[in-house]
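Sequence decides. Our protein:
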Amino acid sequence: MDNKTYTVLISTNRRGKTRSLSISAAWVKTAGFLLGVVIVVSGAVLVDYLGLLLQAGENKKLKAERGYLRKQFQVVESKLSTLERSLEHVKNFSKKLKIITNIDDIEDRSVDAALSMTPSLGEQNYGFLKGKGLKGNLPLNQLEKDALFLKNPPLNHARGELSLAKGKDYALLSVRIDKAVKNTQLREQSVLELWETLSERQNLLNATPSLRPTRGWFTSKFGYRLDPFTSKPTMHNGLDLAASPGTPIYAPSNGVVSYVGYESGYGKLISIDHGYGVVTRYAHTSQVYVQLGQKVTRRDVIAAVGNTGRSSGPHLHYEVRIHGMPVDPMNYILGQ
């Protein structure tokens, strides 16, 4: 056994006042050991405390980020709801246009058929929506039967139940976004087809000679009549509008001048090709203000009323021909 001791002398300024303290080596070792333990424990506690402080700071940061993401989620959901409402307005507007223009609603039926294939069941209910789409191929009637045993019934997208669901998460938002994107693409295609149809009809309307070509009064209409020179029944292929010489003659619709010349029966004659097989002719004119190949638009002045050719007085002989066949111009003139 080690009996080694350590003596500590304590003296003061006063004489004879010296004290000594003897400590065994075992106690010194024990005290050193205890001091080391205390230092180690204190260090561990300090490190742990610092770790807790860092974790608390990280938790606050995560909480702040979570709140930020939640707000961003709400913003995205709000914008998506606005997009869905806008798409619904576009759909209703397209339907109104098609009703007004008497266009068959084939496109909308195709869009509805395509959208009916969009998944309408929430992931939290069936668990097979995994990010990019459906996995599994359960029949709908089986899913409806299984829905009876679920805590929450399946969501119905067609009635907007998805947007009203309490359990809002990114999976449901992803489904809505996918549906909105698909709806947008299909609706865009439908609107483009509607635009092309309306544009084609607009071009047809622009080519329709719906304007009265000159001022004056009708002296002879389309059909059989007694020829003023021979007094025999003869087919009259147009309308005669009597007017003072020099009265302006207007293009009744858009087109291209396809003929300018003189014919013995018609006198100074102009023909305008309006497209779609529609051609108009203007005879007995006194002055011609257009040239062959010139483009004209509705209400452009193309000539003046005259009395050239085989004519009994100043007037305009006006014809409309469809694919070369004379038709009654009165069927196209909208105003008198």
